[in-house]
Write a structure and sequence with these properties.
single chain; 5 strands; two-stranded antiparallel sheet; globular
Amino acid sequence: MLERRIGKFYVSKELVNSEEMIIILRELKFIPYRGECLFYRGEFEYIGYSPLFESLKIGAETPTYRIIIHTKDEELKVEAEIIK
């Protein structure tokens, strides 16, 4: 059974339409539960599972993460940092 490593993050609509988005989701090992376009913010909100997210207790509020992208030797490295 998967641990409750659930979180949410926001992505610009420009990034969603890029090839980097596929790499980012793969590096996060992200399993989406919900994706929603927030027109008023010009962003997409993703909620789902990633082993990089902190484990949550049942009933805990879903935290928001900042996705940090590093480029080294032309490879993308991805980290998730909790902000809420």
